[in-house]
What does this fold into?
Amino acid sequence: MPHYITETCVGCKDGSCIDVCPVDCIHPRKDEPDFASVDMLFIDPETCIDCGLCVDECPVDAIFNEDDLPEAMEHFIARNAEYFVKKK
It folds into this structure.
């Protein structure tokens, strides 16, 4: 089960999660061109290995495993996936 970044990341984009991800599935990084134009970070569900390292690192508790994702935030599943579809 992949992890998903949710609403408390909007406007935050701290990036601590990026630093601990062993498979580089969280984007955009601060050095990527679209960092300034998006309001949050995203996890690529195709690349995420469900290690959970990002969950503990997030200072705003924005990252959830799919099984723990609150129902009210389920729309973030599509939002994370859509970011990476646009990138391909």
About this structure: The beta strands are 3-5, 26-27, 42-43, 63-65.
